[in-house]
Amino acid sequence: MRLALIALALAVTLGALAGMPWGAAIGPLRWGGLLVTLILAISALVAAVPLAFGLALLRRSGSHGGSLAAAALIEAVRGVPLVTQLLFASFVLPLLLGGGVSKFSMALAALTLHTACLLAEVLRGALQAIPAGQMMAARALGMRPAVAYWTVIWPQARRIAAPAALGVFVGAVKDTSLVSIIGVFDVLGAAKSVVAGTDWRPYHVEVYLAVALLYFAASLALSRVARAMEGRRG
Question: Is 131 strand, coil or helix?
């Protein structure tokens, strides 16, 4: 029921941004504040999970070239501060690509890749904690590798990785506040803009406290999701 409500809310939001039923699409350049933070956080997390799973499997694969490439990408992204990655994605990549790419798209790509590489190491550790004999037993029963991973390996790895993955998810939500340095108007940027006004300047503590409570609520919701993942069977 909760997933259905969340899916419905996302569908309504995406429909409104696409111009349905009003007929006027709202592009990323017109987004701002809480909407930018929510879209960045949700999109980065949703896109990072399958990418992280693919990187983790590729790094553990028997292909030397694929494993080396995945390891190089993961270590390179983990070794560079996210602020540097955002600046590179915002100012250098558009020059290499010939322009035409919005800062929002570049920020989303940087956040997704950063989160995926951190999560890939968490998933790799969880996969390594599962005895290799389980995969061999599943293959002996006639399961294909993809089916064995999905029905035998992944449910166990999910429970093992849930506590550490929570830290990655919470960090990804908080990292969305860094996009303001490249000119993306997120909820923290909105708070700074409000406090800059003379009427709201005396209430700067209340404004920043409201932003802090927003991030705390998001982190608390993610922690409940992680506990549910850890406790689920199968």
Answer: coil
